[in-house]
Amino acid sequence: MKNKTLSAAMIFIACTTTVQTxxxxxxxxxxxxxxxxxxxxxxSTIRIHGNCDEIWLPGNDITVTFDSxxxxxxxxxxxxxTQSGTTDGSAVSLWIGGDKNVATINRVSKIxxxxxxxxxxxxxxxxxxxxxxxxxxxxxxxxxxxxVAANGNKQSKPPTRQQNQAKNExxKNExxKNExxKNExxKKPVKTDSSAAPLQTTKKSPDLRNVVDVLxxxxxxxxxxxxxxxxxxxxxxxxxxxxxxxxxxxxxxxxKHWRQWRREGKRIQVRGISSTGKWFNLRDxxxxxxxxxxxxxxxxxxxxxxxxxxxxTATGSSHYWLSKDGRFKTSSSSMMGASVxxxxxxxxxxSCDSSGDSSIVNSTATSGSSSISKKGNKCGAANVGExxxxxxxxxxxxxxxxxxxxxxxxxxxxxxxxxxxYYAIKE
Length: 427
Hints:
mainly beta, Lipocalin, 3 domains, ten-stranded parallel sheet, eight-stranded antiparallel beta barrel, globular
């Protein structure tokens, strides 16, 4: 399956914004979960921070280190992907359509290898049978310890069932630490969002009062957001909503996403956060000021985003149904194909909505054909619940008990912007 060309737009849940880095060449590029990777040059080294819904890699010869992700889709060739976070994140569903990629994952929930000569190492996970649809692919269970975690601590292999039982059994005459006292109400645990942007907090950030303006820099199929602060620093494309962004921590973790800014006449100019050199005009000469949404803003109707890549090998859509009573429902779907004329073809489709998630991969080759389908509960309750719009965020209180905070901007009465995508109201 050589010379395959796959989509540069495979993301069906977390399609995201482009990081603007026009000023400096970078050896290691830093990304968050909401950053789009189809602009990453070949032969790059990148680091992805946070617990992501999905990581999609279309390029070639790229070295990637990531913390955690529920899904990874590799469409390019000769990439090296390594998990280097703690093992507390979700098990990874891995799909590889390219050739000669190497992936090392802590825990896995599914593996589909549609390309050739790929190698996957993992340390365990859910019981499943890898789908090896290409040629010369290899999946191995790694030995030893997990990679060094982001905090510098080495992770051990998962404990056995017997070890877990022994650990959970209280010692004789030893009180259970988590046993509530009499007449003391039990607190309901708050589940964290596995796709949450980094540096999320439960309270509004005090840095919100230091925001001078939030600028929309529009393009045909994508957009950039530039947040201007009173200290003349600016943040490109924050993955965390502006009203929850911890500026001090974000500058420490993502210094290459920050700039200095100034006004020069009617134009905004920027330069590197530590630079004393030349100022650069923004690419968009007429940026639009994005006003914060009014408290408890209610919208109604179906808001949709449709996408396809340039050679029509991949297409998809995502939808938000918002109602005046504060309820929401979401869904997404995608389909992609790859083929080598006269030799083989592969079509993969997936969907995620309030009824659950499903996927199917059909492969046809001269040696025969195969079809693999799967249904799960990764979606479902996560796709329905109550919503709240305020300032620059939409907070989704899903029925799975998790709280999802996402960037939100209202461009006009017919268009909203969520996590790097345009959503238009259905007429």
